Amino acid sequence: MSPGNIETRLHINGEWLPGKSGRTFPVFNPTTEEKIVDVHEADEQDVDLAVQAAAAAFPAWRDLSMFERISKCLKFAELLDRDKNEIAQLEASNMGIPISSYLSCVSGAIDGIKHATGLAHDIHGETSLNTPGFVTFTLRQPFGVCAAIIPWNVPIVMWCGKVIPCVVAGNTIVLKSSEKAPLTSLKFAALAAEAGFPPGVINVLSGFGHTAGHALSSHMQIRKISFTGSTRAAKMLMEAAAKSNMKRVCVETGGKNPAVIFDDADLEKAAESVAASIKFNSGQICVSNSRIYVQRGVFTKFVDTFKPKFLDINVGDPRLESTNFGPQVDKTQFDNILRLIDEAKNEGASLISGGCRTKDKGYYIKPTIFVEVPKSANILKTEVFGPVVAIQPFDTEEEVITECNDTQYGLHGTVFTRDVSRAFRLVKAFEAGMITVNCSSETGPYDMPFGGWKESGTGRENGHMGLESYFEVKSVTLKL
Length: 480
Prior knowledge:
Layout: E1 10-12, E2 15-17, E3 24-29, E4 34-40, H1 44-63, H2 66-82, H3 84-95, H4 99-120, E5 127-128, E6 134-142, E7 145-149, H5 155-168, E8 172-177, H6 183-194, E9 202-206, H7 209-218, E10 224-228, H8 231-244, E11 248-252, E12 258-261, H9 267-279, E13 291-295, H10 299-311, H11 331-346, E14 350-353, E15 368-371, E16 388-394, H12 397-405, E17 409-410, E18 412-416, H13 420-429, E19 434-437, E20 453-454, E21 457-458, H14 463-468, E22 471-479
Parallel strand pairs: 7-8, 7-10, 8-9, 10-11, 12-13, 12-18, 13-16, 15-16, 18-19
Antiparallel strand pairs: 1-2, 3-4, 5-6, 6-22, 11-21, 14-15, 17-20
Enzyme class: oxidoreductase
InterPro entries: Ald_DH/histidinol_DH (IPR016161), Ald_DH_C (IPR016163), Ald_DH_CS_GLU (IPR029510), Ald_DH_N (IPR016162), Aldehyde_DH_dom (IPR015590)
Organism: Trichoderma semiorbis
């Protein structure tokens, strides 16, 4: 599918509409650095129009049987599978993810839809006869109008992970995509209409955080909002949500995720796994292991094993199946990563690989390795969101736990060891919402809660917890 052939207007109440302001914004191909299309921009008026459409659609959608809602969600998954190659080509042009990687995202999104719809069959309340003369029970009921704001790095996973649990629960939704990568979200809106979702149930807007995003977070008729993006934006969203109608908020804001390699670990497998974690999507993934802590006795051996695996990439046009390493999403992201690399060098970090662009054209950055970084260096604190890793030696278990938790974030942690007791000690000690043992963040089960501790966010998506978060709970007491 060519970007020029996709609908670029706003999808509101089952119709394609231009933005009220008449403004558009350009979308660029990060491989060629050239503009590929102009997309209609939503502002506060468009947000309100979409919310009114969602509110009008809610009663009839809520009153459909769960089986009818599930059927439409599964039809949407079927259409995703039908058009997966076109969607992969579109995303490769829009944000630079290689189709070889993106097709696995499509498969994962479809699996997530099937799992969420399967869980929907099992939504139920509780009952109690503990009070003599009364029966008490709980009901789970949908909120009404919800909102979602998704990031640019894996739109299909975020779109499906927020929209499907929301609507299968009986809610309606207004979604805003990232201005960096809006095209596939518009394609998904078209597929949702084809799948039979009634007008107003799923509304999709393209636009910016300070206008459309703020309007969503502060709208008085939106009852819940789910956001994935930066910590700074999440804090502003949470403030706006609280000041408006105290709408429910779920946010995921990234991480600075450690991988701990003990001296008894299988170094070959550990190096392979962690390298895959950081290389996926050119490091533009919130759960990548951007900090690696290696026990001192095997530090040099691990670095020597890790380096060739990390540098084993095929850089090129992400639309080609042979490419496995694409560009950063845009010039802003590209420049920021290079700035952080230069800052790390100035702070005394030892650069042993990369640190520069790989091609004259396109926003490509060579996989970058720093070793023995000063503990105060920003590269150990800041989420780079690129193919950059810091490898640090450590001596004791207690020391490495302290180092791992010395961050504002708490999204993901990894440990490699053959000692089961040690593994469980680390699992408990990590201040993070998700942990992997003897595997890395390339392993992402869709049936488990996804979310972080500390400034990595609040709330959970995926699994039972994710689906149940789209229901209000009502306690009922009946006198016998």
